[in-house]
Specification:
With 338 residues, the protein is mainly α. It is built from 13 helices and 5 strands. It folds into 2 domains: 212 residues, 3-Layer(aba) Sandwich (Rossmann fold), CATH 3.40.50.620; 81 residues, Tyrosyl-Transfer RNA Synthetase (Orthogonal Bundle), CATH 1.10.240. The longest helix has 30 residues. Bound molecules: adenosine monophosphate and tryptophan.
Amino acid sequence: MSGYQGPMRVLSGIQPSGGMHLGNYLGAIRKFVDLQHEYECYYCVVDMHAITTWQDPAKLRDQTFHIAASYLAAGVDPKVATIFHQSGVRAHAELAWIFNCVARLGWLDRMTQFKDKAGKDKERASVGLYTYPVLQAADILVYKATHVPVGEDQKQHLELSRDIAAKFNHDFKALDFLPLPEPLIKGPGARIMSLRDGTAKMSKSDPSENACVFLTDEPDVIARKIKKAKTDPNPLPEAAAGLAVRPEAANLVGIYAALSGKSDDEVLAEFGGQGFGVFKPALADLVVEKIAPIGAELKRLEADPDFLQGVLADGAERAAAIADPTIAKVKEIVGFLV
Ligand code: AMP
Ligand code: TRP
């Protein structure tokens, strides 16, 4: 991490653009819970990122509460970690503009998430969607965060954040002013795939409602989705090497492993040689056991938006206390009047 000497800090964010699912939980939120006692943690609901694609204003507020409630329901303690909404801390937008002038067009042209989200008609995508990873870099670096827990799909954006930090430090001769943030991606659950297609990532925007287990799904719905999950006709292999060319089987075993804290090999030591008729009910029971209580707590919290609003407002104040001095120093470094 270069010669950066500042404190270790964690920042991550999730967009309020739809329901939280098993992939978000295993790839991101669960890590947030584990990290909160090790590091100073900032967990953001990135509403400014959400509006890079159209969001109905009447729904955006509820979606923001949904993400905040997911953090809490999964076990993030708002007294330990800081939970806040991005638009509640102005310094994100201010730093993003300055970073827009540091990042190069060529860097952004390579971002695969933009290509995926913009689709064929990129002329009609918002400018915000294009410069989205620059705002993400500002989210991280305005707290001088050193570690960023995310799923595998965010790897490229994290590399861009490092490039922006390094170029800022270099161009403004501010040696080691910004850290080069490290992604925390590894571990089971970094890439959960669709239940309908083992080669596509589980995503809230999947058109098939059976592709995705939402945290708020009732136990019978969870069980039905697992039962209907696409598989192949063969029994499970005896060891993980046998999953290499079986994406659907690999995904289901991976979910079981991630939720049970076992390795793929340990799961297969138990279920290898058995068919999905045996494995799927065991998996459904495990997913219900681990996810349904979180879903129930999430719904209970969502029913109290005033409480959630209070958590976010309090968090935004604490977050601003860290972000404001950073942006003040950045302005001075850039040569703005202070
Ligand atoms: P998103 O829902 O795309 O805003 O993602 C929020 C967080 O969940 C990010 O850290 C993603 O990397 C992570 N994430 C999203 N989908 C998956 C998935 N299918 N598997 C693992 N992590 C995921
Ligand atoms: N781009 C991330 C996603 O789609 C969300 C995000 C925004 C984020 N800002 C962040 C993640 C800062 C980590 C750190 O999931």
